[in-house]
Amino acid sequence: MNRLASLLVLISALALFSCKSKPTPPTPPVPVNLMTATARTVLYYDKYPATTIALKQVGLYAQVTGYITSINFTEGTHVHKGQILYTLDTRLYQASVDQARANLRVDSGNLLQQQQDADRYIYLKQHNAVATQLVDHQLIALQNAKDSIMAAQQALKTALTNLTYSNIYAPFDGTIGISQVRVGNLVSPGTTLINTISTDDPMAVDFYIAEAQLPHFEELQMHKQKEIDSLFTIQLPNGQVYSGLGKIAIIDRAVDPQTGTIDVRLSFPNPQFMLRAGMSAVVRVHNQDAAPQIVVPSRAVVEQMGEYFLYLAKDTVLKAHSADSAGKNGTDTVETPKLRAFQVKVQLGQTIGPNVVVKSGIKEGDSVIVDGVQAIHEGSQINASSRHGGAAGDSTAGHHQGAGNMDGDSSKKQ
């Protein structure tokens, strides 16, 4: 047993010695794809969530009490100013008009009689044939008759107005909604919402910008960037870009202190009535940075704790320990030139499709690792010989026609 135990100890020692003396295989270089950072003019769209708004919108209410007798339009269609939309029961109001006219005729006859009596009394007074008191009384009666005429005329005017109010007219050209009442419903003045009508051409689009962007939009409002074609466009809920071009109609008077934003209103032509009030849309502001920008693929960016990094490839000479099978302490070194990855912190700008603008952190000529970043870390040995990538964002530079396909997100990474 002692001999067997000694043999096992010897075998274990030999195995342990052989494990310690076996050199660790080197880590193979990670294959990556590189691009050379170059600066170029960048065209893109700032995007803002928006809502379509009617420039004018009013609720229709009855001004007199009555039953709806007819609805004279098609719901959801365009109507014209002065068009009769609803008709109420007019019988009572027509009767009031007839009565007011009859009263006016009676008062007109009474005025004629009082005028004739007054003329006679005045004539008799000139010949001292009538008492002065009778003449004075008659003149007062004449004035009362004239006042009665005025009252009767006003009563007729009121009756005619009420009769007119029994018809509800369109206050302006616009699109009318779904009727809230039907034929036979009783409506009361100022309490029953009958329908809503809003202007439809042009149509307004409201969106909010940060207060820091206000000077830029004020410049746009003053047409200081006329050279930018298609400055304001909107993307509809189905993803389609609306064909009409907008312009700034209003910038609100004040910044909201709670949100730090201000409302901007654009005006868009809407001859086909494709835009409806209350639609969700995305305002696209065609932008052009004056200075050239470096653009890299978004997949090259690494995010860590809310900060953004890129890996650059550099030819670097590192000192590595020389392995010694004789058991030295590894104090000897050898210089090994290698292509390695180094992490740099960057500040990002506008996202443009699959690419992103790098505002700071790298410079032109840097070799940026765009693929394989998940498999590397600071100082990792890399191999770019297997894959070679060109500059990113070639479509982001050049003419506006090419920029039309680059829908940049309005939210910028900082």
Defining traits:
414 residues, alpha+beta, Elongation Factor Tu (Ef-tu), domain 3, single chain, conserved putative lor/sdh protein from methanococcus maripaludis s2 fold, 4 domains, seven-stranded antiparallel beta sheet, six-stranded antiparallel beta sheet, 5 helices, OB fold (Dihydrolipoamide Acetyltransferase, E2P)
Number of strands: 25
Using the alpha-carbon principal axes, give the shape. rod-shaped
Oligomer: single chain
CA radius of gyration: 44 Å
Main beta sheet? 7 strands, antiparallel
Total domains, how many? 4
Sketch the topology as an H/E string, one letter per element: HEEEEEEEEHHEEEEEHEEEEEEEEEEEHE
Name of the CATH architecture of the largest domain: Beta Barrel
3D structure, described in words:
- The chain is of the alpha+beta class and 414 residues long.
- It folds into four domains: 136 residues, Beta Barrel (conserved putative lor/sdh protein from methanococcus maripaludis s2 fold); 97 residues, Elongation Factor Tu (Ef-tu), domain 3 (Beta Barrel); 62 residues, RNA polymerase II/Efflux pump adaptor protein, barrel-sandwich hybrid domain (OB fold (Dihydrolipoamide Acetyltransferase, E2P)); 75 residues, Helix Hairpins (Orthogonal Bundle).
- The protein has five helices and 25 strands.
- Strands 3, 18, 19, 20, 21, 22 and 25 form a seven-stranded antiparallel β-sheet that branches. A six-stranded antiparallel β-sheet has the order 14-17-4-13-16-15, with helices on one face.
- Helix 2 packs antiparallel against helix 3.
- The longest helix is centred in the first third of the chain and has 36 residues.
- It is rod-shaped and about 165 Å long.
- The two termini are 73 Å apart.
- The C terminus is likely disordered.
